[in-house]
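Lecture notes, continued. The same structure-token format from the folding unit now serves as the input rather than the output. Read the line below as a description of shape only.
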């Protein structure tokens, strides 16, 4: 019987939660799956200022492809920033990586993001 290694996304989540425990007050794994061909996860984090970060990521292992979204919202659920790599803003120089700041239509350049990088940016503003 072959055992799959632990979900690398879950391992990265645990490392980030440990590193940023000073700003994460609650975490909830909404979905998590790990198979030989893919890993995916969706998580809700509540932060020290009552804002929320919804993190979703899928990795297709054999194709070495990654899809992500990090949506940071105020306590009233209004958008602060969403970083993602959906391939629909080809005019952005960092395509497909981009962010929506304060509004869905305010699209800006962004480097490729990770959970640790997003939490680091958020921690610097709290």
């Amino acid at each position: 019987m072959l055992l799959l290694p632990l979900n690398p996304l879950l391992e990265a989540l645990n490392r980030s939660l440990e590193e940023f425990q000073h700003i994460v007050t609650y975490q909830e794994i909404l979905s998590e799956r790990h198979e030989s061909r893919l890993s995916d996860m969706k998580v809700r984090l509540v932060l020290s200022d009552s804002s929320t970060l919804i993190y979703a990521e899928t990795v297709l292992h054999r194709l070495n492809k990654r899809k992500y979204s990090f949506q940071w919202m105020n306590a009233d659920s209004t958008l602060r920033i969403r970083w993602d790599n959906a391939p629909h803003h080809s005019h952005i120089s960092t395509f497909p990586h981009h962010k929506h700041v304060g509004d869905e239509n305010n699209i800006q350049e962004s480097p490729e993001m990770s959970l640790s990088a997003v939490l680091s940016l958020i921690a610097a503003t709290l």
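Point for the exam: The first helix runs from residue 8 to 19.
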